[in-house]
Write a structure and sequence with these properties.
- This protein is mostly beta strands.
- It is 2% helix and 40% strand.
- Strand 3 (43-46) and strand 4 form a beta hairpin.
- The longest helix has 11 residues, at 4-14.
- The radius of gyration is 33 Å and the shape is globular.
């Protein structure tokens, strides 16, 4: 079968804008002088005649024509017509990579036994790893001055250290090729094609960013890993100029202040001055954000709440939006138009409100270009954009992905190779999907350090309503997934093979200030040291210190000391739900709490707080004066067991079976020692145990401890009385219900509840009966 893109190119060549016959088996086709619009949905099948119908065509003036009604859709710029980056825009794409580059410090003479140099290489760019051995190598991007012979050249600049090939490292790696910057720039200009094709089995070498800014409906695609872009920028780096391989951005206005706080469900907001709304028109997209100067814990300003909304109308200082706000915004922070501080908005220029950019099926290799402390080059950088699709790409770059202030992105089938040096980041991004992202240490090494130093993915600073699905990493550094001040996201099918961090605690998922997120089917399989599968909260520095109301279900952890740990230096309020939370293999337990002065729980009445597998355990720790001190632990096997409520329970240690509420909203105060303040633990009801509440038909919850009794009994002369004891006992004869079934034959059975501790079953002869009782 001809690949889709090739088939399209063949089709457009075969049916160019000249007179031609209709295609076979078409009952409706483009007339002479027009070419078909070849895109999904353009050809339909008549199920009565079993012939095809073409819906739209392009005339000789570049107009789209609906041939069924003969109506025009207006002028276009070569829609869906592929243009070759080589044939149409003049790129050479003649790059090659060697791994045996040798060059002495300060010398312009270089050798490569596999270089196959010729006079045509003079003037070509060459990117050479030029760093300190054992740390990330820094790129030297220079040019070839002379060719001495097939294995020797001179370069315009000399490296600052001696470079010699090293097995398994980046030393000796170099890329050579024509600088194709002009061709790629032309492909995004007004005269370029909307669909740009990369060649197969060729390497295109560039020094400048492919700037897909302020344009819409532009696609670049290739043939998977066979289409290769190698990015070799010259420092210093500048965003949108040479700071990333691709830069996708919309034009936008200056930032303007919002006068009043915005609540969830609101349909308008108030401008600080009416002049800020004079250029707003219906359907404009606005970026709304609240920035906190201390959000990152290091004094820098970051967005802590973000959304992108659409204008319905404007009246004076009131801006009405098309859909109710999903995020609450505060005006408690000082507004500054020059940075992200405080509550404000900016307007996206209308012509870029629906970017429609697609980056599909190619490979990017981008060696580290700046000092190790600041290596921030991004392979794909997206800012203030909508409807951008990135799929089937292979990325080997210091920071493979960065998205900011964007909406409705679709990242899928992404293969991140080698050693990434900065977390791939999804920040202030909403309503987007990231699926089938695979991180692998395999692939061409362009870095002398082989140990991962960062997480596979960082979701942070206002990102919300996104879906992260099927993300795998063979190993990461420090943590698998980071979540910082993000909310209402779904993480599903995450597998972290190994977290490397021999000097500190490695985490599967570390979340700070993240709330209302769902973590489903997360697998944490190993680490350098005994790690923590989930860590919520932080010890310092963040605007929201405790992660709250996250749902964690169906996860599997191997070698984690704690499946879930909550950390805070201050008071802690936790409303997190754990359902089938943990199967911890070789670890200590299920949950650990670390707090500075007070711990308070709110446990959902309809949800088990802990339903754990192997090694279930709930521990509390306190942090008096900043020193972590073990004080007491609870229930080393199974779920918690309710008992009596109230009063001070102990001064040094709690008993094994601890009360967490019989009835609603009971409080237990823990007086740990004279050095520590009291701790308050509030449970909503007895559903803190392994079973939820028991209700009557009208929805009234029965008090007491809900539980289930299941067993078998053998009838004697058609009857048997069963005595319940221990935890199986119910409150009285009417607080529970029993049913029975004859296991021996199809025969009727009857159960009489004599009391809370006795039932009588009547049936047939000496049959075996199975019974189950549910109640309080």
């Amino acid at each position: 079968m001809i690949p889709r893109i090739v088939a399209l190119a063949v089709c457009l060549l075969a049916f160019s804008a000249i007179a031609r016959a209709q295609r076979p088996n078409f009952e409706l086709d483009c007339p002479a002088g027009m070419v078909p619009v070849n895109a999904p949905g353009q050809v339909t099948l008549n199920t009565i005649t079993f012939k095809y119908r073409q819906n739209q065509c392009i005339d000789s003036s570049g107009n789209i024509v609906d041939i069924a009604t003969k109506t025009f859709s207006g002028p276009i710029l070569s829609p869906y017509v592929p243009k070759s980056i080589v044939a149409d825009f003049g790129a050479k794409c003649d790059g090659r990579i060697v791994t045996d580059w040798t060059q002495s410090s300060g010398s312009t003479t270089a050798t490569s036994a596999t270089g196959a140099f010729s006079v045509t290489d003079v003037g070509k760019i060459v990117g050479i790893n030029n760093g300190i051995s054992g740390s990330p190598n820094v790129l030297l991007s220079t040019t070839i001055s002379t060719v001495v012979n097939s294995t020797t050249v001179t370069t315009a600049s000399a490296p600052t250290r001696t470079i010699s090939p090293s097995a398994g490292g980046g030393d000796g790696w170099a890329a050579i090729g024509t600088n194709d910057d002009a061709a790629f720039a032309a492909s995004t200009s007004g005269g370029g094609g909307r669909w740009v094709m990369l060649p197969a089995n060729q390497i295109c070498t560039i020094r400048s960013t492919i700037n897909v800014a302020s344009i819409s409906d532009w696609t670049m695609s290739g043939f998977g890993s066979k289409s290769h872009i190698v990015y070799l920028p010259v420092t210093p780096l500048s965003t949108g100029v040479n700071g990333s391989t691709f830069f996708v951005q919309s034009n936008f206005s200056s930032r303007r202040q919002i006068a009043n706080a915005i609540s969830i469900g609101a349909t308008s907001f108030t401008l600080s001055q009416s002049s800020d709304g004079t250029d707003l028109v219906p359907n404009d997209y606005l970026v709304i954000a609240d920035g906190d100067p201390n959000a990152a814990g290091v004094g820098s300003s970051e967005k802590v709440n973000y959304d992108m909304v659409q204008v319905q109308s404007v009246s004076g200082t009131t801006v009405n939006v098309k859909s109710p706000f999903r995020v609450a915004f505060t005006t408690s922070r000082t507004f500054n138009s020059g940075n992200q501080n405080g509550l404000g908005f900016y307007r996206i220029i209308p012509s870029q409100t629906d970017n429609g950019i697609k980056l599909l099926n190619f490979r990017i290799t981008a060696p580290i270009a700046v000092a190790p402390a600041t290596y921030n080059e991004t392979a794909i950088y997206i800012f203030t954009a909508r409807n951008v699709e990135v799929g089937g790409v292979y990325l080997n770059a210091p920071k493979p992905i960065a998205t900011y202030d964007s909406k409705q992105l679709d990242f899928h089938d992404i293969f991140i190779e080698g050693i990434w040096r900065v977390n791939p980041e999804v920040a202030s991004t909403v309503d987007s999907t990231f699926s089938n992202l695979h991180f692998s240490s395999a692939g061409t090494s362009i870095d002398s350090t082989t140990q991962a130093t960062n997480a596979a993915l960082s979701v942070d600073f206002g990102s919300a309503f996104n879906h992260f699905n099927n993300i795998t990493a063979d190993f990461t550094g420090n943590a698998g997934i980071g979540c910082t001040v993000a909310h209402d996201n779904i993480f599903n099918g995450i597998t972290i093979g190994y977290v490397r961090n021999a000097t500190a605690t490695p985490f599967g998922v570390v979340a700070t200030g993240c709330y209302n997120n769902k973590f489903d089917n997360v697998n944490f399989l190993g680490a350098d040291t005994t790690g923590v599968a989930f860590q919520f909260g932080a010890t310092s520095g963040y605007v929201t210190n405790v992660s709250d109301a996250n749902n964690i279900i169906g996860n599997n952890f191997i070698g984690a000391s704690w499946a879930t740990r909550f950390n805070s230096t201050g008071a802690m309020s936790i409303t997190d739900s754990f359902q089938d939370s943990v199967d911890t293999v070789g670890g200590t337990g299920a949950v650990r709490i670390v707090a500075g002065n007070q711990i308070q729980f709110t446990v959902p009445s309809s949800t088990n707080y802990i339903n754990s597998g192997n090694g279930s355990e709930l521990h509390f720790r306190t942090q008096p004066g900043g020193t972590l001190t073990d004080r007491w632990g609870i229930q080393s096997a199974g779920a918690l067991v309710p008992a009596a409520v109230g009063g001070v329970i102990g001064t040094t240690a709690l008993p094994v079976n601890v009360v967490f509420g019989v009835g609603a909203n009971q409080t237990v105060t823990y007086n740990l020692s004279n050095l520590l303040a009291n701790r308050t633990v509030t449970a909503q009801d007895a559903s803190f145990t392994e079973l939820g509440g028991t209700y009557s038909a009208n929805g009234t919850e029965q008090t007491g401890k809900p539980h289930i009794v299941q067993d078998t009994a053998t009838l004697a002369a058609g009857t048997v009385t069963v005595t319940l004891s221990g935890a199986a006992v119910f409150s009285n004869a009417t607080s529970y219900t029993c049913v029975a079934d004859d296991d021996t034959a199809i025969a009727a059975t009857r159960v009489l509840q004599n009391s809370g501790s006795s039932i009588t079953i009547t049936g047939t002869g000496t049959d075996i009966v199975r019974f189950i009782c549910v109640g309080n």
